[in-house]
């Protein structure tokens, strides 16, 4: 796998999302709960804007001095008995990890949830090296058994219902219990416990590396990252190069922002910081520790107008606030990073060719920017992407080109505007049902697939507005 | 300077980043700026130790954790009661001088015929993990306790294995009242100072907030996934 998930065209992906009633219901309810959680926590702090300001200052300072902090981090990891490998590309990272697996003759690898290893397609490399790979995050494990990509960066199996999960467990693991979430989770606990104990190598991602001490901070609720880093003799952490903070003090601030913005928790059940290899006489923890720092296109973002996209702490608050994600779901983005942040960074990491539609998967309502705990101006980045796509890449979607061209002529000629607005109602006749357009033609289609469009009432907006003002005045009520 | 064998491909990688940022490599001399705001120090700034205990107690409800409070004299009976609630027969705990100090060793010695107690022993190597895996209860002392989030902080080391709080079915944390601080800010500052003074930070620092849980199946909260399924905190005055 790479950042890009598959080859299904954008419009088809959207159709698939829109037709999936369970997914849409699950996404909208999850969005509501995550968003309420975030708002409740923000309110409890009372000065959430100060926290966001601090978060954004920390991220900006760190990015401006990324070479310094990565240098310090690597020195500290090495001082504490670990190894550090800097990988410019996904291939280099995979090759390095593969060699460790081969040298260790590792049979079983357990992984804790990590977006960057999805991004570089590490699992394939591990399997090529002859190891069995087990994803240990409950959601990731479900997806792995079902060979399905994640649709949300915090709850990756959001699009699956419990009957589907029961079915997967029974087909792939001989599960015979019910579809109650507790029983399903208990089964996963029992199965994965054996994997943790038997694993030769543990692989984790990284929420925040702490430069001053060479520590790797992992944030989970299930305790799987703790298993992965405590039990196997070899532990490999793979981090995107921007996942770093100067000291423990900044780690603490960003973790506080992350857990609140992601799931509305003050802290998750487990926040663990591991530093290097285990000490003399220690039983738990790795004898051998490797840190792989991955660029894989990130340096193309550094030093550009999009640099603040690297400030992202992967909380998914923007995803949970996005009205477009709500309707089309994660898979429609065809990127392991969905939602507004995905629409910003996917074209930056992999180019516009395959992802030119993503900046348009947004209403530019700015709910994402407002939700972001480190104040990334996401919707502004999306606008800038659109400009680049149109001006530099000449890749504006055809419908938009036509519409813009048409709109230009149409709106600059009042007589045309008046005429067409008046024609609209009769022209739309065939698609009208109870005064709402259900199956709009052409450019209206994608809109009406999601929601119905009110029929123009035989009058143009200007006519309507004029009428409204007149009515308002005669009623003596301008507010109505 | 550490052995360069342990660090690979660094120079080209970081040189490229510096070039991208449009300047020379920075290897020293970078200081953290003075942040324009520091809201983290304002949280529960003027609370007394007893008020922090109240805040902790309140938050335990949110994190599905039983909260108990006692004094040194009452500790062993509260401990006994909690072990009974967990139907605990086997217990694993760290090798910690506080067990002697708080009368826990004495209590377990007297309960020898009912309870199977293992004290973490580095000489036994991985055997400790096996014992932890089959234990009913993992018993730890909190090193720093965060009132705001209901979190116990453990500095793990050779006598205090990570497995103790992770592998057993249930988890009991003894929280000396003196370990309470407002929030993670104070714990992080403590560890930062440790590092500044040239002391190695522990190879494993765990911030644990209640039992393990997941919302990965239809967003239903399931308490008890990979780590312990139940947790009790006992605050000791």
What is the spatial order of strands in the main beta sheet of chain A? 1-10-7-4-2-3
Distance between the termini of chain A: 55 Å
Strand order of the largest sheet of chain B: 2-13-8-5-3-4
How many structural domains does the protein architecture of chain A include? Answer: 2
- How would you sum up the major sheet of chain B? 6 strands, parallel
Helix content of chain A: 40-55%
Greatest chain-chain interface?
Answer: A-B, 109 and 92 residues
Q: What is the tally of helical segments of chain A?
A: 21
- Quaternary state of the chains: heterodimer
Question: What structural class do helix, strand and pairing data of chain A support?
Answer: alpha/beta
Mean pLDDT of chain A: 86
Spans of chain A of at least 5 consecutive residues whose pLDDT stays below 50 are 475-480
| CATH C-level of the largest domain in chain A | Alpha Beta
Radius of gyration of chain A: 25 Å
How many E strands of chain B? Answer: 13
The low-confidence parts of chain B are none
Quickly count the helices of chain B: 7
């Amino acid at each position: 796998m790479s950042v890009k998930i598959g080859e299904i065209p954008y419009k088809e992906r959207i159709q698939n999302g829109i037709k999936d009633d369970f997914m849409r219901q699950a996404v909208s309810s999850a969005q509501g709960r995550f968003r309420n959680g975030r708002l409740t926590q923000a309110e409890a702090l009372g000065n959430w804007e100060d926290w966001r300001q601090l978060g954004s200052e920390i991220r900006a300072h760190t990015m401006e001095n990324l070479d310094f902090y990565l240098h310090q981090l690597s020195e500290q990891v090495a001082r504490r008995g670990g190894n550090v490998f800097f990988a410019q590309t996904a291939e280099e990272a995979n090759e390095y990890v593969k060699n460790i697996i081969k040298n260790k003759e590792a049979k079983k690898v357990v992984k804790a949830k990590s977006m960057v290893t999805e991004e570089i397609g590490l699992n394939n490399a591990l399997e090529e090296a002859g190891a069995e790979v087990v994803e240990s995050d409950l959601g990731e494990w479900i997806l792995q058994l079902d060979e399905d990509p994640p649709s949300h960066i915090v709850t990756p199996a959001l699009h699956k219902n419990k009957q589907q999960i029961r079915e997967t467990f029974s087909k792939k693991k001989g599960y015979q219990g019910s579809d109650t979430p507790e029983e399903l989770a208990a089964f996963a606990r029992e199965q994965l416990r054996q994997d943790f104990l038997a694993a030769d190598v543990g692989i984790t991602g990284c929420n925040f590396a702490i430069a001053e001490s060479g520590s790797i901070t992992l944030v989970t609720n299930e305790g799987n990252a703790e298993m992965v880093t405590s039990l196997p003799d070899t532990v490999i952490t793979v981090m995107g190069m921007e996942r770093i903070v100067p000291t423990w003090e900044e780690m603490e601030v960003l973790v506080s922002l992350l857990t609140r913005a992601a799931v509305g928790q003050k802290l998750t059940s487990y926040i663990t910081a591991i530093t290097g290899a285990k000490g003399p006489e220690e039983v738990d923890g790795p004898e051998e520790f490797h840190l792989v720092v991955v660029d894989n296109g990130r340096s193309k973002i550094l030093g550009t107008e999009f640099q603040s996209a690297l400030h992202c702490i992967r909380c998914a608050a923007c995803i949970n606030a996005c009205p477009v994600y709500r309707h089309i779901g994660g898979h429609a983005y065809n990127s392991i990073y969905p939602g507004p942040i995905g629409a910003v960074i996917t074209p930056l990491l992999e180019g516009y060719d395959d992802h030119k539609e993503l900046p348009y998967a947004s209403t530019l309502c700015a709910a994402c920017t407002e939700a972001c705990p480190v104040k990334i101006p996401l919707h502004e980045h999306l606008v800038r992407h659109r400009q680049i796509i149109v001006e530099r890449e000449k890749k504006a979607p055809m419908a938009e080109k036509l519409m813009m061209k048409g709109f230009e002529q149409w709106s600059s000629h009042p007589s045309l505007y008046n005429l067409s607005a008046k024609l609209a109602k009769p022209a739309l006749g065939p698609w009208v049902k109870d005064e709402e357009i259900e199956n709009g033609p052409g450019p209206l289609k994608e809109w009406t697939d999601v929601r119905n469009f009110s029929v123009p009432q035989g009058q143009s907006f200007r006519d309507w507005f004029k009428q409204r003002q007149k009515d308002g005045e005669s009623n003596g009520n301008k507010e109505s | 300077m550490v052995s360069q064998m342990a660090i690979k491909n660094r120079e080209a990688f970081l040189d490229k980043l510096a070039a991208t940022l449009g300047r020379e490599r920075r290897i020293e001399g970078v200081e953290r700026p003075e942040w324009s705001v520091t809201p983290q120090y304002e949280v529960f700034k003027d609370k007394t130790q007893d008020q922090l205990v109240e805040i902790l107690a309140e938050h335990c409800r949110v994190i599905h954790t039983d909260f108990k409070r006692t004094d040194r004299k009452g500790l062993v009976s509260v401990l006994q009661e909690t072990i009974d609630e967990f139907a605990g027969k086997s217990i694993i705990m760290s090798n910690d001088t506080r067990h002697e100090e708080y009368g826990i060793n004495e209590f377990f010695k007297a309960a020898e015929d009912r309870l199977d107690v293992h004290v973490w022993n580095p000489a036994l190597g991985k055997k400790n993990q096996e014992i932890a895996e089959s234990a009913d209860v993992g018993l730890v002392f909190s090193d720093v306790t965060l009132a705001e989030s209901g979190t116990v902080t453990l500095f793990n080391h050779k006598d205090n294995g990570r497995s103790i709080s992770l592998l057993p079915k249930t988890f009991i944390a003894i929280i000396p009242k003196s370990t309470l601080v407002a929030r993670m800010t104070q714990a992080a500052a403590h560890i930062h100072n440790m590092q500044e003074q040239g002391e190695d930070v522990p190879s494993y620092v765990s911030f644990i907030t209640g039992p393990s849980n997941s919302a990965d199946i239809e967003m239903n909260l399931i308490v008890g996934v990979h780590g312990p399924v139940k947790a009790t905190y006992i605050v000791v005055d």
